[in-house]
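Case study 2.
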Amino acid sequence: SVYGVSIAPATDSQTDTPGTLVSYTLDVTNDGNGPDTFDVNVTGNTWSTSAPATVGPLAAGATAQITVDVTIPAGANDGDSDVATITVTSQADNTKSASSNLTTHAVNTIHVGDLDNTSTPAGGPNWNAQVVVTVHKWHVDGAVNPDLVNGATVTVNAIRIRKSNGSQAVSALTCTTNASGQCSVSQSVNSNQFENDVTFNVTNVASPTPYDSGFNHDPDGDSDGITIVVANPG
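Prediction:
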């Protein structure tokens, strides 16, 4: 008989808050030409990780799914991570095995990951300035894809300068992020009354996960993740 096994995906990662249980689903396939049962072993982890002890018996070519649960410690710091290696081994031939590396990240803050601006004419001296805000849970030098935050309430100040005396007019605008982690705010401007630029400042992001503006960034380079200027399109 020929024995063999594979597991997919070979790597996976998730990000969540401390105290949360995250679940991974792995496909185990019997690559041999006869039925086999596979032992499941978890190594390398320091965070609590559970997996079934065995999978099978599986017929030749058959695939079964297993669930691996990882608990992020309640005391984990922002940016902490843990890697669990899940190894499945043939009971018929223990030289046949396959492994998957699961990386779990802890995040206990959110931040602004992008500000994008647009401006459109609105008839006569009027125009509209708009900013799209994207809120992230996680970002480490592009090595980890950021999680997008749904349901965060973003507060932005829109600052205009009066032509008459140079004083500021400030509007506090709010929006709530969607499943793509985005929401938009807009400010109408009369160019007879105000200068041609509007400055938008993010003042807060309210969510069950705390906001840390120190991690704000913008991959486009048109802002620092806090302040962006929108110009009159005319």
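The two ends are 77 Å apart (CA to CA).
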